[in-house]
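Customer escalation, tier 2.

The customer says the design service returned an amino acid string that "doesn't look like it belongs to this structure." They asked us to rerun it and document both sides in this ticket. The original structure tokens are below, unchanged.
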């Protein structure tokens, strides 16, 4: 029995390890729930870094759906990067992680706001919880960025 408990504890600790994890906050002495803070870099716009926080419930079959997201420009963004992104209203998934053994996921989707030249990052849970799909949003406006002028020139050339 002691070996089983040790094996379960080791598995839970290893499952929580991530190269992208920058924070781990315990929710208390008598709980197995922690708030994890992870870095997510946009694969097509590497000048954007998002930090997501979410609850991880060790030894549970499903993690809570609550999450937060903050995205900022952390490197150069150029027009070539933006030509390769999905510009549809639903955007595209840039990150996905499992939150349960029963098909619940946390996803981050990038959406392009053409009018305001802003990248929108939406994090959400794929399973309804207490009558609501949990979600959070962050934006990266390109105002003041050299790419703003590049996009303006492209817009004028199209018109």
């Amino acid at each position: 029995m002691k070996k089983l408990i040790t094996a379960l504890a080791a598995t839970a600790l290893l499952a929580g390890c991530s190269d992208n994890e920058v924070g781990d906050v315990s929710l208390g002495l008598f709980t197995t729930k922690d708030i994890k803070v992870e870095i997510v870099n946009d694969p097509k716009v590497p000048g954007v870094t998002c930090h997501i926080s979410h609850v991880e419930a060790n030894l549970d079959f499903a993690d809570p759906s609550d999450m937060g997201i903050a995205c900022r420009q952390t490197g150069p963004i150029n027009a070539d990067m933006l030509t390769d992104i999905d510009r549809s209203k639903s955007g595209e998934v840039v990150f996905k992680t499992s939150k349960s053994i029963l098909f619940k996921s946390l996803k981050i989707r990038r959406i392009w706001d053409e009018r305001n030249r802003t990248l929108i990052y939406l994090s959400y849970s794929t399973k309804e919880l207490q009558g609501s799909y949990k979600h959070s949003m962050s934006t990266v406006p390109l105002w003041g960025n050299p790419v703003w002028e590049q996009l303006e020139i492209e817009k004028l050339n199209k018109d």
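Tier 2 assessment: The sequence is consistent with the input. The two ends are 73 Å apart (CA to CA). Residues 78 and 146 are 8 Å apart (CA to CA). Sent an explanation to the customer and offered a walkthrough call.
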